[in-house]
Amino acid sequence: MVDISRRTMLSTTAAGAAAALTLRGASPAAAQAAPTPAEVNGHDPIPLTWLEGGAPAEVTGGTTWGVPWPRGAFAPGQQFTLTTEAGTQVPVQSWPIGYWPDGSVKWTAHAISGAEPRAGSYRLGAGTAARPAAPVVVKTDGGQVTVDTGVITVAFVRSGEHVVESITRGTTVIAKDGRLVASRQDKPEEPGKSESFTSHVSSVHVEQAGPVRAVVRVEGRHKKGRREWLPFTVRCYLYAGSDAVRVVHTFVYDGNENKDFINGLGVRFAVPMRGEPHDRHVRFAGEGDGVLSEAVRGITGLRRDPGQAVRQAQYQGKATPDPATWDQRVTTRLQWIPSWGDYRLSQLTAHGFEIHKRTGPGHSWIRVDGGRRASGLAYVGGPTGGLAFGMRNFWQLHPTELEITGAATGEAQATVWLWSPRAGAMDLRFYHDGMGQDTYPEQLDALEITYEDYEPGFGTPYGVARTTELTFWALAATPDARRFAALAAANATPPLLTSPPRHNHAAGVFGSWSPADRSVPAKAALEDKLDLMHKYHREQVDQRSWYGFWDYGDIMHSYDGDRHVWRYDVGGYAWDNSELSTDLWLWYHYLRTGDAKAFRFAEAMTRHTSEVDMYHLGRWRGLGTRHGILHWADSAKQVRISNAGYKRFYYFLTADERIGDVMHDLVDSDRTFLVLDPGRKINGGEPFDPDPKALGVGQTTDWGSLAMAWLAEWERGGDPIARTKLINGATTIAALPNGWVQAGVTYNLADGRFNPMTEKSVSVGSLSSVFGLIEVMTELIGLIDDQAVKAKWLEFCRLYNATKAEQKEVTGADWGNLNLRQAYSRATAYAARQLGDQALAERAWQELRTGHAGYPDNHPFGSRRVEGPAVLNPVDEADLSTNASAQFGLAAFQCLALVGEHI
Question: Where in the chain is the domain with CATH 2.70.98?
Answer without folding.
Answer: 137-297+338-428+459-492
